Amino acid sequence: MVVSIVQSSVLLCIALIACQCLRSSPEARLTICRVTLVAAVIILLGSPWTHSRNRPVVSVDVASWGLNGPVDSADDHISTHPIRQFRQVRRSQSAPTPIKPKPIDAFVLFQTAWLGGVLLLSAYLIVGFRRLAAVRRRSQPLLSGDIVDVVSNVSAEYGVPAPCVRVGVNIASPFVAGVWRSTLFVPSDWFYGTKDDMHEAIYRHEIAHLAARDLQWNFAQRIVAIVFWPQPLFWALMRQAHIASEQVCDRNVVNSGCSPEQYASALLRLRDRLGKASTAYPLGIGAVSIRSVFGRRIEAIMKNSGGKNSSPSRFSLSALSLVCGLVAVSAATIIAAPNWREHPSASRSRQGTAKMSGHAIVQILTLDGKPATGTVGVVFDGRSQAKEWIETPVRDGKIDIDLGLHAGYPRATLVAIAPGYGIAFKILWPTEKSVYELRLNPATRLVGQILLPNGKPAANLHVVPRMLADPPNGPGAAFLMPPKDLQSLLMSATDSDGRFQMSGLAQGTQIRFEILEPEYATIANYEKRIKLATGPISTCDSTRLSPAAYFEGRVTRNGSPVVGLRIGAQANMNLDRDPGLEGGAVTDADGKYRMAKLRPGIYNLIADLQDTWDAEVTAVAHEGVTIQEGETKTGLDFELIPGGFVSGKVTKSDGSPVEGIGVGIYGPAHPNSSAWVQTAFTDPKGVYRLRVPAGEQFVYLYTTPTAPGDQADQQQHTVTVQDRETTTVNFSWK
């Protein structure tokens, strides 16, 4: 939409400038105005309205207002990795600052304001219809007489059907109205009073409006103005079109042989007759309107009083229309051209540190290859399970989503759910090959039972999927899905016997499921997955719940609370080799956090500062914290401190820098007893920089060489960093 507004604004500005340059030719100005208005409407009804644009306006982060309490949800869990070797530690992806509360969507505010304006302007148009209907009821039709004869003769001269003539005492000045049934309304004193030679000139002016189809154009312009009222240049160009149409009709009257001086005098008398009373009806056109630039019209009439005004030929107007059309096409394709035609296959790097960009245009198909319908959306996710679920409409079996609108997230997963089919997903970013098609899967239903800690059935609990993995989405494919609005599509509730049936799953998929209720601990670890059957029904063993444990603490910086910081917990792999121990929480307005749904075990607690606060501060982690079933452990505080730096350069044997190489570090901020590693990537100069607390640090390269013949220096460095000092660690890339 933003692109289309820019395009239409450029086009409308060009038209307004052209109108100023052609002030002596109202016919040319009128042609420019009408062609430009049509072109601008086509642009505004083009790509941004017929192609999906999710959240084109930045949302307002209410988390920083200090209105939110501590987060207590399974959605905050930090996923872990079961393998401890440093070359196999997964990269911690960068993500925007986590926003737990649902943001205020500014696009919704814009839509509300737009709808309010549409309703207000529509009401004004309806009032115009009612006023015109009242004038019609209070007037009398005129079937014969001098006025009817004059109107019939002038209409025949212009080659248009003669309008109906109605006379009324409540009509102050002649005007024409009616989009489909044109009517000329005449003041009663013009019919009963003395005949004036200038009356015919006024009738000729009104019939000239009918010949130019000004009534139809005005009505169409009013509808456009209602729909696109926030575009102020529309109103400016409509005003120019109104002025030009009045001057064209004035010129027709003068060219018919009427004296310019007498005609100008007649118009002035009509204006005096109107006075300050508003008799200009929203759906009618009068010879004099207090809203028009009346002085400019009189000046144009008197300027050429010495002879007839020359009008452009039809050929000239047609050529001008063609030029206007070409300018409109240029504005749509060159000036701020939208990139909705662009496919992700464009030559952009989708790996390494490149930001997500481009459009994803994907065909959604059923099992038999037909276009599918259903709920389709994209999950944008980053580190620490910070995620956002954006639904996008399916048109003709395709979706089109602008990845660039969510460039702060490093990962995008397309998800499709349709009645009678199993959930399907594919990674949109980052991926080496562009995704053109997503085919739905055969469905299965998972049936299981949940038991309370005492062994009794757990009724009225909410069961949701936490992870989907492996076929039919490809070997090694995995999808973590904590967003609540996506979970709700597959959520199931237990009955009185504690049994649940989770529908819409894909056959052959591995799944982890979870209970949403916070008083119970996470029920499955990372490696405990259920393999779904290749038939319509899959079953699993009964699952017994256990009471949840809790971590509580406070985060401060120079004694002040830190709001909106995510704290993650992972298993201490040296003391407790259960990779399913995980948790997460976000600090509230007082800097406090409460981490829920924890299983008993030994944890490391880490402040998630990377790509947010780490530009200024770091924090020492809590290592080896033991907690029992149902226990609440308090006092796990974090103090954000300046710390020191580990910095260095990655170069080839010839000394040239290597960009985009990942460097990992374990230390006081990220203990090497956890799978969560602090990372950085080299810049174009091959330089990396990591802020860490003082103490011993283990630094290594974990990016795997991809080019033939490349070899990474496998040397691992253990260094000691002092506060506010920089320790240099360089690597070679052979």
Describe the protein:
With 734 residues, this protein is α+β, with helices and mostly antiparallel strands. Residues 47-102, 276-282 and 334-353 have low confidence and may be disordered. Helix 7 (197-211) packs across helix 9 (232-255). A five-stranded mixed β-sheet has the order 1-2-4-3-5, sandwiched between helices. Strands 11, 14, 18, 21 and 22 form a five-stranded mixed β-sheet that branches. Strands 15, 16, 17, 19 and 20 form a five-stranded antiparallel β-sheet that branches.
Can you lay out the helices and strands and say which pair or pack?
Blueprint lengths: L1 H20 L4 H19 L2 H4 L55 H33 L1 E2 L4 H13 L5 E5 L6 E3 L5 E5 H5 L4 H15 L2 H14 L4 H24 L4 H15 L9 E3 L7 H10 L10 H20 L25 E7 L9 E7 L5 E5 L6 E5 L8 E7 L3 E2 L1 E6 L7 E3 L1 E11 L10 E8 L8 E3 L3 H7 L1 E2 L5 E8 L3 E6 L14 E2 L5 E3 L3 E2 L4 E9 L2 E2 L4 E6 L10 E5 L5 E7 L2 E7 L14 E6 L4 E2 L4 E2 L4 E9 L9 E5 L11 E4 L5 E6 L2 E7 L15 E5 L4 E3 L2 E3 L1
Parallel strand pairs: 2-4, 6-13, 14-21, 14-22, 23-30, 23-31, 32-38, 32-39
Antiparallel strand pairs: 1-2, 3-4, 3-5, 6-9, 7-8, 7-10, 10-12, 11-14, 14-18, 15-16, 15-17, 15-19, 19-20, 23-24, 23-27, 25-26, 25-28, 28-29, 32-35, 33-34, 33-36, 36-37
Helix pairs in contact: 1-2, 1-9, 1-12, 2-9, 2-12, 5-7, 7-9, 7-10, 8-9
